[in-house]
From TrEMBL, chain A:
Membrane-spanning segments: 20-43, 55-76
Keywords: Membrane, Transmembrane, Transmembrane helix
Gene from which this protein is expressed: actO
Name under which the protein is recorded: Putative inner membrane protein involved in acetate transport
Pfam families: DUF485 (PF04341)
The organism's place on the tree of life at top rank: Bacteria
Amino acid sequence: MSHGPATQWKENKTLDKKKARLGVVMFVIYTVIYAGFILINVFDNPVMRISVGDLNVAIVYGFGLIILALVLAIIYNQICTNAEKLTEVSGKR
Amino acid sequence: MNYTASPGAIAIFVCFVISVLFISFYFARKSKSATDYYAAGGSIHWSVNGIAFAGDYLSAASFLGICGLIATFGFDGFLYAIGYLAGWMVALFIVAEPMKRLGKYTFTDALDSKFNSKGIKLMGAISTLLVSMFYLIPQMVGAGTLVTPLLGLPHEAGVIMVGIIVIAIVATAGMASTTYVQFFKGALLITFSLILTFLVLSRGLSTSPDKTDVPYHNLIALKVSSISDTSVKLDDPSYQVMSLIKTKTKSFVKLSKDNVESFWTLNAPKNILEETETITKLADGSMLYNGEPKSSNKFFQVGSISSIDGQKGTANTPVTTGSLNPLTYIAKISNSTIIRWDHAVIKDGGNQVSVYFQNPTSGRDILSPGLDFKVDPAKGATSVDRFNFVSLMLALFLGTASLPHVLIRYYTVPSPSAARKSTLVAITAMAVFYVLTLYMGLGAMTGGVLDLTNVNMAAPLMAKAVGIAIFAMISAIAFSTVLGTVSGLIVAASGAIAHDLMDKFFNMKLTDKKKVYAGKVTAIVVGCIAMVLGILFKNMNVASLVGWAFAVAAAANFPSIVMILFWKKTTATGVICSIVVGLVASCVIILFSQDTYSSVYNLVGVKAPFAFSNPALVGVPLSFIVLIIVSLFTQKSSDLKAVSGVAS
């Protein structure tokens, strides 16, 4: 069968597994916080109106989810890229 | 509201189209193989692919739809932005690298990579086509809806124009040209959204905002000297009181002045009549806008602040804030009262009158959930309302990483690590964009720019109030958002037919050249079908269709993708049944939901089998359960196949 990728690259199954595990951990962290946002909206909606300085919980939590997405994405990519570089270096030795 | 075509918008749009066609014909010369056509040769740099992701994903629903929803409902519109971005977490952490590793050209390739199953090839292709069609129809309808105010052409012309340009893009060079069109569009969209947001913040807030296009319409209030059960008396003798019309929640007074009839809301506690806007359908079928024909241009733009920090402004002494930063802008909105507009339909003799009346709303309510989504039981939300909300947020979260036209973008980069990096670039671009939509939406809500008959025009009209040059750019970009997304959808659909069905399922053993030819022909056919659907579904609620696409993708595709990656006991039969159940469950719920009965079939008052409208909360778990159970029951046959495969 020819489902396989159209381009070639160096495979490292151990590293792939580690990246996948890290991905799952990051995913779970984000999902818990996202689920919290939805559940508070549904089961305790007045919490969303509580003031946080000049803003409220809804705005802070909403912006927080967007910023958290970016931060987690950068951290994940950095860890994976560093691991790939380390594997490349140790592979060359 | 009457729109006149902006020559600047037309000129910029024509330049964009010429550039896009030039890119397509340039890459056409280089696109010879199937890898070139379906996956842009696998040679796209991750930074380009990342912005192309943004250009692919940020359709008219994101740019126009979300800004329009925020301008109308405040925070509830922003919930869509949060949900759309959250979906990319699933794409980055779970799907990006494995998708690149497993597949060649299509989403079905990745699903079938471990099984070589005809059933998976067929169901994967059907799922791709169904989701793509659900997504394609609103894009084509959106193209037609946009082209009337922006370019001054009828709906059908917009649909046909988009269809022809997209066919030219995809049929010439497939994924290569599509990638650069999406990159180009994504970069322009984010750049000009940044500029528009900067201008919104620089203008600040005002109870009588400055507009460069038409003067701001200061709302009129008439003093009432006495009120009875059947009539009112006014201080202003130039108005003649015609009748008092009562509904369950409001009283409206019909007045006449200089032979022009108007409707006003009776605010009894304040002894005033508040100005409204009306669209009257006369018995002969003709329409009046604020009592006069449309050509008289009396239907004014709305969206204003009546008080800032407790200070009320008037036409002669407006209250202004000066320029604000992102945080103080939100803070000022929070301490303001904003005039939103609600809608009622009343009968006036043989005429039907749509009345848009003022609804002063505190800034705190606008920046909190609840103006659109009913989720608070204390405010009358039922369990069905809350179910729909949770289901929608689930569909947005899981649906993004399950959309075939998004997933195929992973095949254009050289490696899994490039797939991951391009997703990071996409997330960065989209995070910036979705934050900007909040400011563009709030700016439109308070800037006196809203057209009550077309909330999707909030962002372009905001740009028009700020300056004609940026309006021209934003208009052209708004139209181009459709081109980028539709190109991606047609590549996905073309891949499903030519690669998944013709080459793999029907085993037509196509040569590389014939695979490219098949892809191009199917792109033309799918493009033509899309044009027909865009004209047929002209009056459909397109926002629902996008939501349905996410829900169907989440139920049909997501469980299979995840379980193939993370559960070794997944079998081909389990995947096939999961996709079938996900598709059928979602479509049945959608077709037989209360919402569809009322707004699509017009069966008002008829009880539908399903009270809720978003199927994700049922479809996704059901699809997972079916996959697990069927896989466990078909373990032996897949073990046997594995053993026989090793033996042979």
